[in-house]
Amino acid sequence: MSDETWLVVGLGNPGPKYAGNRHNVGAMVVELLAQRAGARLRAHKAGASAESLRLGPMPGTRTVIGIPHSYMNLSGGATKGLATFFSIPPERTIVIHDELDIPFGQVRLKQGGGEGGHNGLRSITASFGTKDYVRVRVGIDRPPGRMDAAAYVLKDFSSAERKELPFLLDDAADAVELVVEKGLTDAQQVVHAPR
């Protein structure tokens, strides 16, 4: 594949028990991207559900989307496996993940930087040997009161949040398509613009 191909990976934990968790918002965004493209994710030997498709306005940009089959803190193996299989470098890899440091309902884009205690990102950085991949950070807010962050991310969205969740997933999917279509800097100007 050409180096114009992008890899988009949505993080989460496998199985129905975790499907609605805040920690699974990255996987939810990839499922939405597949739905938008009329594609179905299929099991891939890299240890992920994945599909090759075109994202964005016609004719679209060649993109591989995937969700690791492993638990969150082992996300690096499948992500690196897909990147290697499709010959996609880290800097053309987009990782979608939940972000405690961003208010619920907001999406932020960045390349590189720290992992902020996120074990999925830590695993990907270790597997790639670099932090130089794009992150689509989906805001889930901080836990209320003294709730432990690890417990909070493994809880389902509240009923109030669930009403807003489709809009958040749409915004995150739009952000991914913008990065793929226009590049990170132009996408940041749109996504980070005040509303």
TrEMBL record:
Protein EC: 3.1.1.29
GO biological process, one term: protein quality control for misfolded or incompletely synthesized proteins
Main EC class the enzyme belongs to: hydrolase
Record GO cellular component, one term: cytoplasm
Function comment: Catalyzes the release of premature peptidyl moieties from peptidyl-tRNA molecules trapped in stalled 50S ribosomal subunits, and thus maintains levels of free tRNAs and 50S ribosomes. Hydrolyzes ribosome-free peptidyl-tRNAs (with 1 or more amino acids incorporated), which drop off the ribosome during protein synthesis, or as a result of ribosome stalling.
Record family assignment: Belongs to the PTH family.
Name of this protein: Peptidyl-tRNA hydrolase
Source organism per UniProt: Janibacter cremeus
Lineage: Bacteria, Bacillati, Actinomycetota, Actinomycetes, Micrococcales
